[in-house]
Amino acid sequence: MPRIIPPASLALVALLALAAPATAVTGVAFVHGTSDNDDAENEYWTWQFIDKVRDGLPNRDDFVVVNCNFNAFAWKNEAAGCLATYLYDFIQDRGIDDMVVITHSHGGNMMRWILSNPTWDSRYPVIEEAVRTVYALAPSSGGTPLADAVMDGNLFEEALGWILGYKSDAVRMQMMGNMAFLNANEYLLGTAGHPALPKPFSPVVGTDVDSAVYDGDSYCGDYFEQLGLEITQLWLTGCSDGFLDCWSQETAGDAPLRDYDFTEGDWDVWWEHSWEPLSHGQSRRDCFGLAELLRDRL
Amino acid sequence: MPKPKTIFPAPALLALVALATLAAPSSGAESARMISATGDDLVVDRIETRAAPIEAPLGAPDPTAVERQPIAVSWPLDPNRTIDPSPRPFVAESRSYSLRVSADELRRGVTVPTVGPAAVVRLVPVDGAATEALDPMAITVVDPAGHEHPAGAAIRLPAAAETLRATGVPFADGTSAFRLAEELGAGAFVLRAPSLDPDASEVLVHVFEPESGLVLELTTARDAWLRGERLRAVAELRGGPGAELGELQAFVVAPSGERTPASVRLAGPSRIEIGAPLDSRESMADGFWQLVVRAQGRWNGLSLRRDGHTSFGFAVPTARLTGQVGLVGGFDGLAVEVGVEAGVEGRYEIRGILFGTDAAGSLRPLGTGHSAAWLAAGAGALELRFDREVLESAPLGVPFEVRDLRLMDQRRLGLLHRQARAIRVV
Fold it and tell me: pTM value?
């Protein structure tokens, strides 16, 4: 259903525009979330989303879609090491010196790993220098109680070992206690009380889930996904995108942008702007003006 | 935002170390000394000479697998940013528990105690095979008052395995979920899956009580521990006056899944003190360490169950700070050499936050510096560098102080030293 916000909130959008250097070669990188991808273009993002975002580039070919194994812990070579290879090669091959990185979900943690640990790999400082900003779509910066729920039982049932619901080290990493440890001990920077990241990290935050069968907006993305998110929200607080609490999405970085700040609802009248919540799945799809927002910031 | 960086070859590092007694002219600093650690700091007093191997063998074909170049990086911080160098351990909260039952038991009926209404139940077949018998709308319920509700009648928000899988949340294969009808209240429910094949896989029954005020809180005394120490932790039931704990179980789970029993002691009707030896050599690079507690008790005449888990950091003490520090000359900025004694060769990292003094005499954050290098076993040093751009980013000067100083066994993710106030530079 459309949501209403006062027009004053729209001013926030204007404050977040970042300008590229005048002579820069601008590029955009798409960094997926938890998954072991080999076709993130089709299976994770969709070309509809990618194409609309890269319309904002001076050269539409200056983009890269990352395909890595983010089921592994961030520090493993197949995870952040693979991400570094994509970004480093992208920078070198196309002469990119003004890179906007768009991450989704756990992909935000992968990018934070690279920016937080510049001495880990001699390519990391090169990547950091080329980054203009990171737009972190629904980042799992504080973890999620759903990861803890998935792991419940595995921890107690010795005979099950690490098998049940344990296909992914990413799930373990996104347990709330583990993310709290990584954040507090500066393996991942940018949270309150700790040093800022060397480059801007701007969360884009989903605040709710619509799954009403009579509401066409529920069908942007995948309706069946929306249905299940209604029950997963029971593990979460009142403000969540069905997978992550708002506080988790806003744990790291600055100037979070919430869905009601920019999404477009079905109807507007001159005194009100309508908006739509971005569920966790919708925040990587061409839903409610998200792609246009990112396009306009390249 | 400019971020200076330096990747320097090892011979250059050694040459710079040799100049350590010279002052750095651009910082205005003349000397540096180590501040004594306090009881809240993490300090290695005894190093070990054996540790888990790092991720890739030395000389691996992929040169990026284990970085060998020394790298130093620094960047400015907003002087108004609040820095809190005293990490507090995570406080885990639990309103849930799980039971492992046979298919035949679930077919005949499993008792599920609750202390709050509208519990959320997940049914997880251990073999991961989804079955219509575990579809929420096939589940019959006997409520705490003894009334039997036919299949699906006491079920709310049913999510069959297919629906739950579509969320992208990585629940185990075959998992279904539902909520018990709120109007049925709290107490002991009996759940039945009457069409379940008695020879089918065992089932984990997870019960989550989001509406219950009774929470099991679990926290370790510190968030980071070293091999040879004894883990200390406390679990406490909150939100239920008069709640009493009875049967208790606790253990430590290593990254490999290996479990070590922990000792538990009732320190009050609803409080448990936990202790466990930490003598593993497993590396955090392979995963996290968990403390797990399973508790049963009673509250308000009802049976109560809670399972809790929390995380903590663990490291084999492969290196330590020697306490020797000195300014490094010839660097365009401020560079401090920090003495390190390594028991195992590896890539070690030091990082710290440089505070400078403002016109009013207060120390405020100026920048953060990270430096890593490959060190052989024995005496060595790492050089913490803050570039000129950091020093010039705000009107802050001597005396400087390096706070939140950390020594890490980088590739084993081992946090070896953490000191809130560490180096004074005047």
Answer: 0.91
